[in-house]
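User: Teach me something about this protein's shape.
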Amino acid sequence: MCVSYLTQKTIKSKVAFNGVALHSGLDVNICIKPAEPNFGIVFKRVDLNENNLVYPNFMNVTNTSLNTTIENEYGVKVSTIEHLMGALFGLGIDNAIIEIDNEEVPILDGSAKEFIEKIILSGIQISDAPIKIIKINKKIEFSEGERHISIQPSTLSLDIDFELNYENTIIGNQKNKVKVYEDDLTEVYNSRTFCLYEDIEYIKKKGLAKGGSLDNAIVVKDKEILNPEGLRNVKEFVNHKILDCIGDLYTSGYRIVANVVCSRGGHYMTNQLLRKVFKNKENFSILEIKEKNLPHNLINRNLLRSIA
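Assistant: First, the predicted structure itself:
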């Protein structure tokens, strides 16, 4: 999942998924199809005949409560996009059209595992068009109460340093730091969404998690994990939060070169950070890669051409 060959990619052939939506409980079909260079990632609601394109841009995010929801100017929505977006980011997919026949992306097993596996099986088509990246120029922070997230310049990597803190002793204070373009992120992409058993009734009263089950979420009750198979990795809770963060960062439109530090964050915090970053053009640069490989040092201005 490294991004060493720096030209735009799409999938070689269409990939279909079917499953229950976590919050609506409805059966949903999606089909990811190849797209031309510079097309970007676009969702298409095929259950609607018009105004059915929805762009996964941070400015189009209209809900961050328990998922990331995007919406176009006509009120057409696509929700729970974060795991699929994380998979596309990790595989270096720059261009794809995602056809979906309902409002919510299926949850599958609660991670990005199935998205990753099927897309790899379909193959990845490499173009000659250079990729674009976002380079962060200065440190930007966003805080709310005890929650905090920051982004600051990096050399040529995307580092995510994430900490979560729960009173529950099973989850507790869990931390992990990953280099997104260099590390083996298998455990991150295989990590499932989770919740506390005592929160389920409240979530369902809000009309959410109608499709939730032990097949697609980790449920923690006191000092016990209710899923018979237990955890997939020892840091599965924080690793899932990192997966969410990667998917939400991709609503910036491009891969990012930066150092992200987050404590007790989530969809809302990441979205607010992106809004703050892109509010001022001095905070970032959008760069086009002019060579096939980055040097193993600071990003060289001779390899990059600023386009913003």
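Now, about its shape. The mean pLDDT is 92. The domain at 7-132 is CATH 3.30.230.20 (Ribosomal Protein S5; domain 2). If you'd like, I can walk through any region in more detail.
User: That's plenty for now, thanks!
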